[in-house]
Amino acid sequence: MEQFVFFGGKGGVGKTTVSSAYALKCAEAGLDTLVVSTDPAHSTSDVFDQDFGDEPTAVEGREGLWAMEIDPDEEVERHMGEIRRRMNEQVSAAIVNEIDRQIELAHRTPGAYEAALFDRFIEVMRNADDYDRVVFDTSPTGGTLRLLALPDFLEGWIERLVEKRAKSVDLFEKAAIGDKEARRKIDEDPLIAHLQGRKAKFEFAGRALREDAAFFLVLNPDELSIRETERAVAEMAEQDLEVEGFVVNKVTPAPDDDEQGRGATWLRDRVETERERIDEIRREFDEPVVAEIESRVREVKGDLLAAVADELAIDTEPAPAEA
Ligand SMILES: Nc1ncnc2c1ncn2[C@@H]1O[C@H](COP(=O)(O)OP(=O)(O)OP(=O)(O)O)[C@@H](O)[C@H]1O
Ligand SMILES: [Mg+2]
Fold it and tell me: Which residue of 46, 48, 144, 206 could cross-link 140, Cys pair, CB 3.0 to 4.6 Å?
């Protein structure tokens, strides 16, 4: 299995549960594992009954397991502050207020939220050398995936900018400060450096997601969930990202044969409907169903987590060492 493993899926299907269970499974197999969640509701903290923040923290009583929770709102705030700071350095005070207003507006769009979060994901992936496996309890979708095209787009932009700057440095400064100095000025240009930094960052992200990451989608055995999953698979395919398998969660357990009465009848009907949906999942998608996890009576945490981990047929083998 690749170093980075993502569990995507629509709201409430069980991403955090399945990610935590898989991370536990990896840790128990002897891998140093980090589970990263982006849930504003802090569900990873619920699962392990321990508070986690923005930095990896060892999970108590679980050897080799660390967890962190990225708060998307904080991430957007930070992103916004960063852009503002850079703007303030480069434009006159007169237009800073207007820019502030624009930035504020831009960050209210859902895309900005995703973008800020994705930036943080990239940072986590870039600094993951200490871990054999990093498990993300969400997967990039729509707008975020389109950010992967950014390096190509920035490439042309940077080239044109460098050319322009080189020309102006040439004209106005070469005579006064000499050739060497002029070159140094272009290299130090903060705007070009920033764009080059962005480009390198997203290039890394594209490579890491295509070469070092595996994607699983979590879904429930119902029509809506299946349709959403079809969309997610198509979106990922557009960016050359392949889903490795599906985790069907919250599957209703069947009653024993001798059980009678309304409750048992309801359960049997429900089980049959879900069976049809699971058959549909197996039929319609190319990749395998790697787990069917039954609905538990209670939230999945504590000992239940290990039981769910056992039901996941996803290997934990470490990624092969790089050549
Ligand atoms: N197999 C299961 N049996 C019983 N409860 C489950 C099961 N799987 C998940 N749950 C419960 O369902 C709720 C939602 O699960 P979870 O938080 O894992 O979903 P999620 O996809 O991460 O949600 P969100 O999109 O809000 O982040 C939780 O209370 C969790 O304990
Ligand atoms: Mg969650």
Answer: 144
Q: What is the pLDDT of residue 110?
A: 63
Of 228, 281, 224, 246, nearest to 18 (Cα)? 246
Query: Considering only CA atoms, which residue is closest to atom 8 of ligand 1?
Result: 14
Atom of ligand 1 nearest to the CA of 250: 1
Residue 11 CA to ligand 2 centre (angstroms) = 7
pLDDT of residue 160: 82
Give the CA angle between residues 206, 37, 105 to the nearest 5°: 70
**Residues 1-32: tens digit of each pLDDT:** 999 999 999 889 999 999 999 999 999 999 99
pLDDT, position 193? 79
Task: Name which residue leads in pLDDT, 85 or 130.
Answer: 130
| Closest protein CA for atom 16 of ligand 1 | 14
CA pair distance 183, 176, nearest whole angstrom: 13
Domain 4-311 superfamily per CATH = P-loop containing nucleotide triphosphate hydrolases (3.40.50.300)
State the distance from the centre of ligand 2 to the C-alpha of 18, rounded, in angstroms.
9
Q: What pLDDT shows up at residue 315?
A: 92
Q: Which ligand is nearest to the CA of 13?
A: 1
- The single-letter DSSP state of residue 299 is -
Tokens 């852009």 belong to residue? 83
> 63-102 pLDDT, tens per residue?
999 999 988 788 788 877 877 777 777 667 667 777 777 7
Q: Whose CA is nearest to atom 9 of ligand 1?
A: 14
What is the structure's pLDDT at 156?
79
Torsion 133-209-86-185 (CA) sign: positive
For the chain, the average pLDDT equals 86
Say which residue the tokens 């042309």 belong to. 156
Taking the C-alpha atoms of 215, 131, 317 and 313 in order, what is their torsion angle to the nearest 10 degrees? -50
Pocket of ligand 1, beta carbon within 6 A: 9, 11-17, 39, 43, 137, 249-250, 293, 295-296, 299-300
**Residues, CB-to-ion distance under 5 Å, ligand 2:** 15-16, 39, 43
